[in-house]
Design goal:
Blueprint: E1 2-13, H1 17-28, E2 33-36, E3 53-55, H2 65-83, E4 88-90, E5 93-97, H3 102-114, E6 119-122, H4 123-129, E7 140-144, E8 148-150, H5 152-165, E9 169-171, E10 174-182, E11 185-192, E12 201-212, H6 218-221, E13 230-239, E14 255-259, E15 265-269, E16 285-290, E17 295-296, H7 307-320, E18 328-338, E19 346-348, E20 355-358, H8 369-380
Parallel strand pairs: 1-2, 1-12, 2-9, 5-14, 12-20
Antiparallel strand pairs: 3-8, 4-8, 5-7, 6-7, 10-11, 11-12, 13-16, 13-17, 13-18, 14-15, 15-16, 19-20
């Protein structure tokens, strides 16, 4: 076994959205940090892929997220300035449903609590403003101007590039097999390279603290805690409009979430031509069902998309967007790692002060990556967090919604 002689201030396990952002922020602050990922990020095996992600301010899940997302907007902008890369494209956003749905009522609650710019549209007003949409008369829409699109693969790549530039040690294709904590800190054992076939170099290193940000593999990385996390498979779909494709382009078509009378939430992202996204964002209108997948694990997830799954979305999407009928083109699988109450999990290990459990996202976390990275860097540095993190503690019980 190769033993690394250098000791690190912090080791970060898992370099998806939260881990890469945390590593980048630690390195920016001059902390000696190392990050491990079992794959080579950005990759398509976890939760932080799919070309686009939504960012929105009138946060229907709970008003407590609004200050966090506002800080995230500022940090994404700072990251763009430093990297010279486009990471966030404004599109405006529309939350659609009956007035009493959790989506519409929650968005209005956040908008009114925090005095956010927004307006409320009738179904007829939605149809006039966005002619690609066919919204039933019983629905209304909450429109917010600051919503937009993030590019997750590019975001993670940017976090890691800057982390390396600032001195972080990044180990990819490196599976952490175990960690142990004692009064001196944490010892990490990992296998580099082809662990599945018994090959690969084994290594060990030490750190004062460790951040576990493993997403779908979190439970196996901290098995002693019995974390109440569940992993949910979710399928992303892309459509090519069969007519009037210009109506689906950014500038004419917003990001949207739509809750129907069964409580199902459909969400989507417009076509993004002309905004400099490049070859890493493919063509198509992205549409998916939110929290509609089967339970799985990071290792056992079913990667194939069934004909039934395609049929379901190919029937549902055109009910609201008629020009998508017959336009399904491709799909991808990713995973949500969920807490029972749908909130985040950010806390110190109850038995090891040197160990931090960082498990957003419950299916809505990518947008927060830079602010979570900043918060975790504060926590491991012993600084008070500028936000109330009590709702994200492991022992919180069921948070009020």
């Amino acid at each position: 076994m190769a033993v690394m002689t250098d000791r690190y201030d912090v080791a970060v396990i898992g370099l998806g959205a939260m881990g890469s952002a945390t590593l980048s922020e630690l390195a920016r602050r001059g902390r000696r940090a190392i990050g491990f990922d079992r794959f080579t990020p950005p990759h398509a095996f976890g939760s932080s892929h799919g070309e686009t992600r939504i960012i929105r301010e009138a946060y229907f899940e709970h008003p407590l997220y609004v200050p966090l997302v506002q800080r995230a907007y500022a940090l994404w902008a700072a990251l763009e300035r430093r990297s010279g890369r486009l990471l966030l494209a404004p599109t405006g956003g529309l939350m659609i449903g009956a007035a009493d749905t959790s989506l519409v009522a929650g968005a209005l609650r956040s908008a009114r609590t925090h005095g956010l710019a927004h307006d409320v549209l009738t179904a007829e007003e939605i149809r006039r403003a966005y002619p690609a949409m066919r919204i039933p008369d019983a629905m209304i829409g909450v429109r917010e101007p600051r919503a937009g699109v993030l590019f997750p693969e590019r975001g993670i790549d940017t976090f890691l590039r800057l982390a390396i530039e600032d001195g972080a040690d990044v180990r990819v294709d490196a599976r952490v097999t175990s960690w142990t904590a004692d009064a001196r800190g944490v010892t990490i054992d990992a296998v580099m390279g082809d662990a599945a076939s018994g090959g690969g170099e084994r290594m060990r290193c030490e750190a004062d603290q460790i951040v576990l940000s493993c997403g779908p593999w979190m439970k196996s990385m901290a098995p002693d805690l019995g974390l109440p996390l569940s992993v949910e498979r979710t399928v992303l779909h892309w459509f090519e409009p069969r007519a009037r494709a210009d109506r689906f382009q950014s500038g004419r078509f917003p990001i949207f979430l739509l809750e129907d009378d069964r409580g199902h939430v459909l969400y989507g992202v417009p076509e993004m031509p002309g905004v400099g996204v490049g070859a890493d964002v493919g063509a198509g209108v992205k549409v998916a069902l939110h929290h509609h997948g089967e339970q799985t694990t990071g290792d056992a997830v079913r990667r194939e998309v069934s004909a039934e799954e395609v049929r379901e979305i190919a029937e549902l999407a055109p009910a609201y967007f008629p020009d998508l009928a017959g336009g399904w083109r491709r799909a991808a699988v990713c995973m949500y790692t969920n807490m029972p109450d749908g909130h985040f999990l950010i806390d110190r290990h109850p038995r090891h002060d040197a160990v931090w459990i960082v498990s957003p996202c419950s299916g809505h976390g990518f947008k927060f990556a830079p602010v979570i990275g900043e918060l975790v860097a504060d926590l491991v540095s012993g600084r008070p967090a500028p936000f109330d993190l009590a709702p994200f503690r492991l022992d919180r019980g069921t948070a009020s919604r």
